[in-house]
Amino acid sequence: MQLTEKDKTSLRVQALCDPFRLMLRQFILFCVLVGAVVFPFKGMAAAESYVITIGVVPGQLRYDVIEFEVTAGSSMEVTFDNNGLMPHNLLFTQPGKAMEVVNAAMAMGADGYTNGYVPESGLILASVGLMEAGQKMMVKFVVPVEVGIYPFVCTFPGHGNIMQGVMKVVAAGEELKKPLRRKVAKVKKQEGPPNDGSGLTTLPLGSVEQPLVIRTFMPNPIRVRSVFPNHRRGKPTPTYSPNTGHDADGYIDTDIGFPAAVGVNFGQDLSLCWDTVECRLMYAWREGFLNMESYWGAGTGDRRKSFDYVPRLQGRLVFLSEGASPLALTPGVFGQPQYKGFQLDEKGVPEFLYSVGSVLVAESIAPGEQAGEIRWHFSIKHAPAGVMLGFDEKMKSRIQTKDGKWAGNVLTINSGTEKDFTLILTAEETVIPIAPDLPKVGNVIGQVKRSGAGGVALQLKKQALQRGMKAYVDGEELIGSVPLEMQGADWVQTSQEDRLAKDPVFYEIELKTEAGIFLLVDGKIEGRPEGLSDQFKDSGLRVPVSGKRFYRVWSALFPAGNYRFEALNDGADHLQMVLAARKK
Amino acid sequence: MVFKKIVSAKKAWMVLPAASCLGWLAVVAISASAAEEAPIVTKGELEVKPSYQIEEIKLPDGVGHGIGGLAFNQAGELVVVSRRTGVVIGKPAQDARAFEWRTFSAVQMHNALGVLVEKSGALLIPQMPELTRLRDTDGDGKADVSEAVSTAWGVSGNYHETNSGPIADGKGNWFVALGSASHSGPTFDLVRGRFSVAGRRGRNNMSVPWKGWVVKINAKGELKPWASGFRQANGITMSPAGDLFVTDNQGDWKPVTPIYHVQEGKFYGHPTSLVWDADFVKEHPDPLAWAVDHIAEVDEMRTLPAVLLPQGFMCNSASEPIFDTSDGAFGPFAGQMFVGDIAGQRILRIMLEKVGGEYQGAATTLIEGDVLGGGNNRLCLSPDGKSLYVGQTYRGWGRPAEGLKRVTYSGEVPFAVEKMSLSKTGFELSFTKPVNKEQAEKISEYQFSHYYYEFSQRYGSPQMGVTPVVAKAVKVSEDGKTVNIDLGSVLARKIYQLDLGGLKAVDGTSLSHGMLCYTVQRLRE
């Protein structure tokens, strides 16, 4: 990767070092090997062999195949899939010799188990030894040339007299009948319980008269890190194979949400998310509440979306927290808040109770008297020197209150240790639709241009860096969870093809303002990539990408201006540069 | 019906060494068909009144999905906590469809697993993020306060981190079992509590504090770690003698579903939980990575389960355990433990005894079948002890079943093995009724085998080393109620499975359930 800047600085990046190339070759070699194993195998199976899978009826001493036909002298592949609950094996015997083989297996005594209950016998055509529950194995053999009825049998002690099936060998040229299989009862999918009338919905909704309070995972539309000083950060973690007990290739992504917040809904008028870790109103929205289908499943179902189950917001955001808690300026407020619970008032509105420092707070949020207004009430005890609430300019313009005095953006609720006061948050003129757009975070990158032979044009995605976007103009890989610092950044979608370019490829970008630039570099490169300018620091952030990879994020602050980056073009499979920028 | 086929299958291979091939075939054919067609309880040819009647309790519309807590309050009303509808309270009625229900709290809890009724009538409920106390302060019959009694554990955002309990210790504290996360789901970018990357590694993992632990919480909400090494303890209970038991679930480091006697400071096998043990982490910063390479040492470190419940035909996913405190009102099994199977259609009965100072014992089936259904997740006895209420859910996995069942003892004593006890060289069986002595003296009536499950990081273990065992001698007591079986010797660290399904009582009654699995961890001295 090379990085040069036309006017101001020059950042020279050397070509990749050799060990890394070697690693890439190994990776490519591995891909080729996988191909070599899979494709010829498939071809052969389709062309010549008779292929069949024999399973068991779980909980019974039965194979799922009663009988199948196969042509004399042909080759065949039998996969024995022990999908049952106990150990079984599978032995093909000469006609009429099944019980003889069963008895021979029995005679193995103590050696039986270790030898899979497969006795040494000329009566056995082929066998799959003992498969524990859940195991499977394939065996290939040549079908006898003699037409006849050849049994297959499980010789595990006690199974043999019941657990048998038949392979019918028919003359060449005869049409083969489809295998005769036992019906394995499938677990019926339940639409709902017998007593389900049902009143169950994945779109729960309260009303002003009967507010709904729910504890569940809550979505998090807030992009500003400073709002969450009391949470810790989850991190992507190596995927793991319980079979080997070691890490596998790739990472498990993190998802975005509040683990311990409370959702409250007053029908179409107001919904809110109050977090018990920050002890703070996080955001509010209108015209809907939550769609729980991703977490609860459709209907009465219960089919969670595996890695994407955080409930979805419905409606339009009307309030998002920014910066520190408004109470942070109040004397006596310090340290981590401690959530105590909530009490419902006579209208069913929850009043959240918490302590922070020496101060005790009861806080409730409900629809105001005028449409679109939010009534935000505080009752505060043990504040040694009055209450001071800090807001930004925009929030200040939305707050009406009869209590206290403004000094700049700080509202002071006179002195005294016990205070009750109400803020009326007026409706915002333009509310933010929740989907599909994200809250605006800046307008940083101007023009982008790619120069170099051939290739695909760059795409500038404004305020767009987020989970689920395609990583490249010309690839299918998707970006995983994006750290808060980078969410919604302007983003230059590059071409995967450029890594194969023979001649240098340059990306030119115009920074309209001083901005942080993020370089996303393949996670397999540990430490600073060769030649990367010292200006770039390892941010410690990681961005997973589908295909079990992740990027390490290098970041630096640049003034406004035009910059030129040289794309990596060593022909490597998976080192690729992704560029994103965000206003400082 | 499915279960019976399994029984006959087991019988088949256990009969094997005791008979010649032809004789063996004959026995298999007879026993298989008998098991297939026999009604649950027979007396000679006559069908008799079943010992247990099972009814479906009608719940209010919308309630009944994901029942996570069942308890009776001081007024004799049934408290039902469900996943999507808060808490309802019902006044029981003779008629299963005529319970009078009212909503106690419409606040939806986050995957509650358990409920404890306090003396004040308040409810203590363990949700994913907290131990919550619901109180009705104005006496209108509805909870108006949701008090966060404790938030002292972490929450990662993983769907699997459910917590069960609480169990009062009688001194103002509660035990809660904190579940683990699954690698089949994410954690969030924001978590509550410290996040450990080493703790997040693994099949079932513990990336935030005290996951995989049984903890003790005091009235102030402070948490004291009590015992480690659990995977997903769905239930926790205290015996009448004051011993704490949990039912954990099969999976990684849990070769098969275990029931543990939980004691302070002990470790129960899942090494990832040790990431929250500061002393252990000093030596092994990544406990899972260390454990995978030192399985024998971990096996040595762990406290063994009291009872193992074989997968497939006994239990795939255990409910909360309860002790039969009915003093006989629920049948002849007073003092024994009951455990439901979420994945199967049965309630198990556990016979515990102390051998070498530690609990171990046998498991058998109490009731089973389509009428009961699957999803058996929560259990609770009625105040009069005559009925067992079963809260069902298929949340997660298993056979579809949702709702509430009532199992009532009819007074008809079932013919059953009341107690299976380890002797020096075999087992002693005591029966609820005198056995047919002539039949009971035949060695061939007792089909034994032993096997084990392999402890490792893999998800569950198959049955290993299945070995048929032939009894050496059988001795029936004068009164016909006790049978001593001499196996010559007994091996430790094995499950002994006994099938005696053909045995009849002197009055002709068949055994209600003829298979027992005794977990031999220690031998009689």
Structure description:
The complex is a heterodimer of chains A (584) and B (525). By secondary structure, chain A is mostly beta strands. Chain A has 5 helices and 41 strands. Chain A has 3 domains: 2-18 and 440-583, no CATH class; 58-181, Immunoglobulin-like; 212-425, no CATH class. Chain A has a 6-stranded mixed beta sheet, covered by helices on one side. The two termini of chain A are 24 Å apart. Chain B is mainly β and 525 residues long. Among the domains of chain B are: 152-233 and 235-240 and 263-305, no CATH class; 415-520, Immunoglobulin-like. In chain B, 11% of the residues lie in helices and 36% in strands. In chain B, helix 1 (2-15) runs antiparallel to helix 2 (21-37). The longest helix of chain B has 17 residues, at 21-37.
Overview features:
heterodimer, A: 584 residues, mainly beta, Immunoglobulin-like, 3 domains, 6-stranded antiparallel β-sheet, 41 strands, elongated, disordered N terminus, B: 525 residues, 8-stranded antiparallel β-sheet, 7 helices, 38 strands, 36% strand
The count of helical stretches of chain A stands at 5
Specify the helix fraction band of chain B: 10-25%
Structural class of chain A: mainly beta
The outline of chain A comes out as elongated
In short:
The complex is a heterodimer of chains A (584) and B (525). By secondary structure, chain A is mainly β.
Topology summary:
The complex is a heterodimer of chains A (584) and B (525).
Chain A: E1 2-4, E2 10-11, H1 18-47, E3 50-54, E4 65-71, E5 75-81, E6 88-93, H2 98-106, H3 111-114, E7 124-131, E8 136-142, E9 148-153, E10 164-170, E11 180-181, E12 212-215, E13 232-233, E14 237-241, E15 246-252, E16 254-255, E17 261-265, E18 271-275, E19 280-286, E20 290-291, H4 293-296, E21 312-313, E22 316-320, E23 338-344, E24 350-356, E25 359-367, E26 374-381, E27 387-390, H5 393-398, E28 399-400, E29 405-407, E30 410-413, E31 419-425, E32 432-433, E33 445-451, E34 459-461, E35 490-493, E36 506-511, E37 515-522, E38 537-545, E39 549-558, E40 561-566, E41 578-583
Parallel strand pairs in A: 3-5, 4-10
Antiparallel strand pairs in A: 1-2, 1-40, 4-11, 5-8, 6-7, 6-9, 9-10, 12-17, 14-15, 17-18, 18-19, 19-22, 20-21, 22-32, 23-24, 24-25, 25-26, 26-31, 27-30, 28-31, 29-30, 33-36, 34-35, 35-41, 36-40, 37-39, 37-41, 38-39
Chain B: H1 2-15, H2 21-37, E1 42-43, E2 46-47, E3 52-57, E4 67-72, E5 78-82, E6 86-91, E7 100-105, E8 116-117, E9 123-126, E10 131-135, E11 145-150, E12 163-168, E13 174-178, E14 181-182, E15 187-188, E16 190-191, H3 197-200, E17 204-205, E18 214-217, E19 223-227, E20 235-238, E21 244-247, E22 257-262, H4 278-283, H5 287-293, H6 295-301, E23 307-309, E24 318-323, E25 337-341, E26 346-355, E27 358-368, E28 376-381, E29 387-392, E30 403-409, E31 417-422, E32 426-431, H7 437-440, E33 447-452, E34 464-469, E35 473-476, E36 482-486, E37 494-499, E38 515-520
Antiparallel strand pairs in B: 1-2, 3-30, 4-5, 5-6, 6-7, 8-9, 9-10, 10-11, 12-13, 13-18, 14-17, 18-19, 20-21, 21-22, 22-23, 24-25, 25-26, 26-27, 27-38, 28-29, 29-30, 31-32, 32-36, 33-34, 33-37, 35-36, 37-38
Helix pairs in contact in B: 1-2
